[in-house]
């Protein structure tokens, strides 16, 4: 019996050891990261090979929906709102599926549900947020490994290129570069924001830098947000004025911050303001 148990133990150890051996995947994972204009675009997909097979019209029959790769969904992520084949697409991640209509024409679909293995068991047309109807170009050589790339890059867009076997399609997309640049220009030309002044003032306070500058900047931040006062801004104003020796202004700011924090029911700042007011003899 002991010998039998020993044999089983040896087999179990051998099995566990073998299970930990890493071998190459038949469809290895790939990731494309590309900056287009000012927008980050990422594609994550698996790359099957032709391996002597007929792919389109064979392994992937005409009239069916293809996962556009292998294994888990091919997923594309846009860092900003974009347009794909002239259709608006919100920033975020999408699965790419392709309806293989014929050797000459495909529908490349951007699907809002990315948690599928292969094609969804229950296809939902409502989850198709954009469809690019693309003509298929035959290339004069065979591409062994399935490839998706981002090419024809300009400041305002590019193409999502899908290449495999002897077929190529390109899906045009545009990015909001001009809108982002103009927003940056306008922000710069309009000067620092309230958040910029606030961050600079708090940094000076916490770093022990010029407290006079901190007072100037926090007061500017408070003035710029007076129509929508922020209790956390005003609490920092209290601390900065206290550090600068302006006790009356510090107490007034803390009382104002306390009232706003109570209105917002924000316990942490209620306590912070009460603590400093007690410390300064104002409660």
Helix/strand order, N-terminal first: HEEEEEEEEEEEHHHHHH
Number of domains: 2
Summarize model confidence as the mean pLDDT: 91
Counted by DSSP, the helix tally is 7
Beta strands, count? 11
Distance between the termini: 82 Å
Give the overall silhouette.
Answer: elongated
Biggest beta sheet attributes = 7 strands, antiparallel
Low-pLDDT runs:
1-17
Specify Rg, calculated over alpha carbons: 30 Å
**Helix content bin:** 25-40%
Strand residue percentage? 25-35%
Structural class by SSE content: alpha+beta
Descriptive account of the structure:
- By secondary structure, the protein is an alpha+beta fold.
- It folds into two domains: 24-178, no CATH class; 192-279, Tetratricopeptide repeat domain (Serine Threonine Protein Phosphatase 5, Tetratricopeptide repeat), CATH 1.25.40.
- Helices cover 36% and strands 30% of the residues.
- It contains seven helices and eleven strands.
- The chain has helices spanning 2-19, 177-189, 194-207, 211-224, 231-243, 247-264, 267-279, and strands at 29-36, 39-46, 65-66, 75-78, 82-84, 87-89, 92-99, 105-111, 128-135, 137-151, 157-174.
- Strands 1, 2, 3, 4, 7, 8 and 9 form a seven-stranded antiparallel sheet that branches. Strands 6-5-11-10 form a four-stranded antiparallel sheet, with no helix packed on it.
- Strand 1 (29-36) and strand 2 form a beta hairpin.
- Helix 3 runs parallel beside helix 5, helix 5 packs parallel to helix 7 (267-279) and helix 6 (247-264) packs antiparallel against helix 7 (267-279).
- It is elongated and about 85 Å long.
- The relative contact order is 0.09.
């Amino acid at each position: 019996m002991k010998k039998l148990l020993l044999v089983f133990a040896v087999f179990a150890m051998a099995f566990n050891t073998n299970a930990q051996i890493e071998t190459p995947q038949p469809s290895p994972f790939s990731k494309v990261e590309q900056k287009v204009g000012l927008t980050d675009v990422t594609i994550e997909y698996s790359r099957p090979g032709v391996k002597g097979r007929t792919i389109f019209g064979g392994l992937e029959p005409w009239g069916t929906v293809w996962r556009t790769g292998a294994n888990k969904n091919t997923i594309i992520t846009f860092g900003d709102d974009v347009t794909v084949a002239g259709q608006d697409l919100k920033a975020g991640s999408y699965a790419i599926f392709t309806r293989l209509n014929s050797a000459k024409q495909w529908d490349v679909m951007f699907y809002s549900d990315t948690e599928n293995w292969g094609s969804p068991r229950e296809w939902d047309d409502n989850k198709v947020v954009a469809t690019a109807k693309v003509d298929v170009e035959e290339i004069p050589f065979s591409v062994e490994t399935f490839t998706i790339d981002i090419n024809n890059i300009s400041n305002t867009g590019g193409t999502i290129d899908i290449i495999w076997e002897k077929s190529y399609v390109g899906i045009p997309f545009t990015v909001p570069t001009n809108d982002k640049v103009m927003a940056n220009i306008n922000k710069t030309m309009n000067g620092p924001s309230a958040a910029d002044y606030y961050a600079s003032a708090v940094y000076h306070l916490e770093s022990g830098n010029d407290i006079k500058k901190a007072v100037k900047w926090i007061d500017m931040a408070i003035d710029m947000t007076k129509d929508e006062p922020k209790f956390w801004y005003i609490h920092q104003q209290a601390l900065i004025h206290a550090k600068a020796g302006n006790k009356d202004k510090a107490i007034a700011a803390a009382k104002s911050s306390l009232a706003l924090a109570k209105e917002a029911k924000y316990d942490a700042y209620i306590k912070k303001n009460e603590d400093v007011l007690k410390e300064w003899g104002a409660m």
